[in-house]
Recover the amino acids of this structure.
């Protein structure tokens, strides 16, 4: 009897171990890479939820620091491997990496449907070959942030609509000590490479572009009236109006520590302020223009794109990855939450009416501006250090014309050698006035 | 007969044991150093830009770097500037500290630890602190200089000051390491030389000039050679203090390694970057040979 019992127990345990081995062998692990921890943290609950619904799928997440991310990815690709199955993408890397990505499958992500549902379909995120390689979660642009208490104290009412109104407000908000040193900058926009961004936006407003038509050089507007007028305005704010000064704190620290009453910021800044200075009372308004109207254009925008799947991922895993992405992106709550956290308005137009977006103090302002913003296409990472030389040259006392000429020459050289192939800024069509 | 014995000796159990012991290191060097170097040389002969077809182009990358790249010469000049200031200044400071600390007796250990602390600190953490020290508006350095009437300096934003700012931080960070090497050298000088010279009436300067310096020559050579090699490859200091890619305002801190890093990882021109790396290797090799020849000690005490 005992012998039989022992043999049955042995048989059962053997069967269990065989089945569990088989079961684990059938499990598929999808690796997800990102460089931004908050975004990964927002994803983790969704990964757990999906694994519960699909026990055969498990996920492994990895944060790779921003500097290392593309290098590691590149090393893996060059070795014919797929370092991760699902990767967070950035559209600045499009020209280089798009050839290594798998297009989103038409059966799960029908482009005709996406065309109807998403803003700026043709220019924003679909490649010239008519395929979509990464997911268009949301759009970001620039706004002016202001300190509510300082605003009230200065007796200011409505927020500025024109650049001249902004100048007047900035002058009223600036505070100096006895020696004339700025204690509170009325409008801080230097340091951290942001002078170039505001210059670029103002230049767009006057009909200037970032690149020439074929992306092999800088646009002529750099050294033309749009470029000169924009930079002269910014230089005057610094040296004539003295609403900020060379070497002042970067706009992030300046605003957080209440050393600046107004700052220019891209809307990721919202999350940064909320996290670092949660008690700060602030508001935001759209970028001023010369006429006070947003038509035809206010600023540049950029897509906050999300996950892509490498070509080198095995076919079976590719299918599982896209199936998961379909499930993830069908969840509007996830999209809204993530857009709020990243400071972007959803790419899906239907979500703009959601209270989470409509009532958000910054996103509701950004919503108004986004239709009047230009997406230039790819903006490779070598552009920013070159355009940042504008600020250095102005601080060095160089004339506006010479600073623009020298900077344009540098950018021309860089673009001649590395042309921007995905250059779509001229596809911009403004909404009706 | 003699030759057979020679080969027998070669395969003696002692030699075999040594061989077994060093095999892992040899493999490591072959795979991760010489293998990687060989592959980098292979890359340098190709137009190897990510996303574009790979083409063999011989030495075109080398010619392009040397003939058509003005930024290479700017980076070369910046590297030389960094080296000719950092090496002598850091070396002299380290030597003075070492001589000073050597005469401190029991307190020497404490001061050695104090000066060595920055060496073992993370360069990234140090750079964050120095960035704040250099902050034009509220930084400590400008505050102190302001007391003496020095106007506010934009250390990291001014093209004329960015490199000096990096050099100051680099010397502060590295002086402890050089000082410890000098200390070891100083402690290796027999006291009898000093005693004999003092009996002959030599003063402190004469002791330093005629005994310390000559006897420290092998150490000075080592410091100089390793210093030149290290400073020609300087990168981290620029990268962490001035932010990616480390080229600073108007490329004022663009060194050769910063330049090749940008070529490799911003432009993904791996062949071009490899060629730049081999040109740097050639420069370092030539300078090292010259230094070793010039500073070779031809006498022994």
């Amino acid at each position: 009897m005992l012998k039989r019992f022992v043999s049955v127990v042995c048989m059962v345990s053997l069967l269990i171990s065989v089945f569990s081995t088989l079961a684990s062998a059938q499990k598929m692990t999808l690796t997800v890479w990102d460089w931004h921890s908050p975004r990964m943290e927002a994803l983790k609950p969704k990964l757990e939820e999906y694994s519960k619904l699909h026990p055969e799928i498990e996920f492994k997440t990895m944060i790779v620091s921003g500097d290392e991310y593309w290098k590691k990815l590149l090393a893996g690709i060059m070795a014919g491997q797929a370092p991760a199955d699902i990767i967070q993408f950035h559209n600045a890397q499009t020209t280089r990496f798009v050839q290594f990505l798998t297009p989103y499958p038409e059966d799960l992500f029908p482009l005709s449907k996406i065309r109807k549902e998403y803003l700026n379909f043709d220019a924003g995120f679909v490649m010239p070959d008519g395929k979509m390689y990464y997911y268009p979660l949301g759009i970001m642009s620039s706004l002016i942030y202001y300190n509510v208490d300082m605003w009230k104290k200065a007796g200011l009412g409505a927020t500025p609509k024109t650049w001249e109104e902004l100048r007047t407000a900035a002058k009223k908000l600036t505070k100096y000590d006895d020696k004339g040193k700025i204690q509170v900058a009325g409008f801080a926009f230097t340091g951290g490479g942001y002078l170039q961004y505001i210059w670029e936006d103002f230049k767009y407003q006057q009909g200037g572009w970032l690149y020439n038509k074929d992306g092999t050089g800088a646009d002529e507007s750099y050294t033309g009236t749009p470029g000169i007028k924009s930079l002269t305005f910014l230089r005057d704010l610094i040296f004539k109006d003295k609403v900020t000064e060379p070497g002042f704190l970067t706009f992030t620290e300046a605003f957080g520590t209440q050393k600046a009453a107004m700052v220019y910021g891209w809307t990721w800044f919202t999350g940064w302020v909320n996290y670092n200075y949660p008690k700060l009372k602030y508001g935001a308004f759209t970028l001023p223009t010369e006429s006070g109207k947003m038509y035809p254009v206010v600023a540049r925008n950029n897509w906050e794109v999300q996950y892509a799947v490498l070509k080198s991922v095995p076919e079976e895993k590719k299918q599982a990855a896209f199936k998961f992405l379909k499930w993830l992106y069908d969840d509007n709550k996830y999209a809204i939450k993530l857009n709020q956290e990243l400071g972007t308005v959803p790419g899906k137009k239907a979500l703009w009416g959601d209270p989470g977006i409509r009532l958000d103090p910054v996103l509701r302002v950004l919503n108004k501006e986004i239709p009047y913003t230009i997406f230039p296409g790819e903006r490779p990472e070598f552009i920013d250090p070159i355009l940042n030389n504008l600020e250095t040259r102005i601080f060095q006392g160089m004339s506006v014309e010479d600073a623009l000429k020298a900077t344009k020459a540098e950018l021309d050289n860089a673009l001649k050698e590395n042309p921007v192939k995905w250059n779509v800024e001229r596809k911009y069509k403004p909404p009706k006035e | 007969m003699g030759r057979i014995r020679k080969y027998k000796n070669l395969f003696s159990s002692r030699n075999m044991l040594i061989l077994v012991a060093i095999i892992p290191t040899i493999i490591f060097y072959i795979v991760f150093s010489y293998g990687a170097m060989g592959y980098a040389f292979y890359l340098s002969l190709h137009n190897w830009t990510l996303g574009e077809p790979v083409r063999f182009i011989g030495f075109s990358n080398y010619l392009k770097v040397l003939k058509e790249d003005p930024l290479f010469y700017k980076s070369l000049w910046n590297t030389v500037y960094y080296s000719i200031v950092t090496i002598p200044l850091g070396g002299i400071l380290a030597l003075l500290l070492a001589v000073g600390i050597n005469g401190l007796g029991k307190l020497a250990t404490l001061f050695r630890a104090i000066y060595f602390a920055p060496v073992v600190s993370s360069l990234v953490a140090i750079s964050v602190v120095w960035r704040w020290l250099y902050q034009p508006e509220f930084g400590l350095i400008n505050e102190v200089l302001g007391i003496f009437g020095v106007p506010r300096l934009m250390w990291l934003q001014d093209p004329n000051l960015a490199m000096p700012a990096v050099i100051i931080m680099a010397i502060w960070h590295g002086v402890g390491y050089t000082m410890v090497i000098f200390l070891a050298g100083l402690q290796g000088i027999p006291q009898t030389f000093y005693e004999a010279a003092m009996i002959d009436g030599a003063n402190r300067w004469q002791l330093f000039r005629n005994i310390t310096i000559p006897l420290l020559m092998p150490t000075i050579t080592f410091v100089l050679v390793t210093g030149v090699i290290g400073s020609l490859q300087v990168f981290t200091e620029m990268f962490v203090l001035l932010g990616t890619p480390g080229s600073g305002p108007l490329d004022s801190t663009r060194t050769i390694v910063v330049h090749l890093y940008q070529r490799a990882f911003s432009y993904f021109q791996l062949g071009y970057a490899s060629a730049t790396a081999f040109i740097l290797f050639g420069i370092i090799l030539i300078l090292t040979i010259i230094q070793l020849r010039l500073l070779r000690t031809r006498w022994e005490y």
About this structure: Chain B has two domains: 2-44, 61-294. Chain B has a mean pLDDT of 90. The two ends of chain B are 43 Å apart (CA to CA).
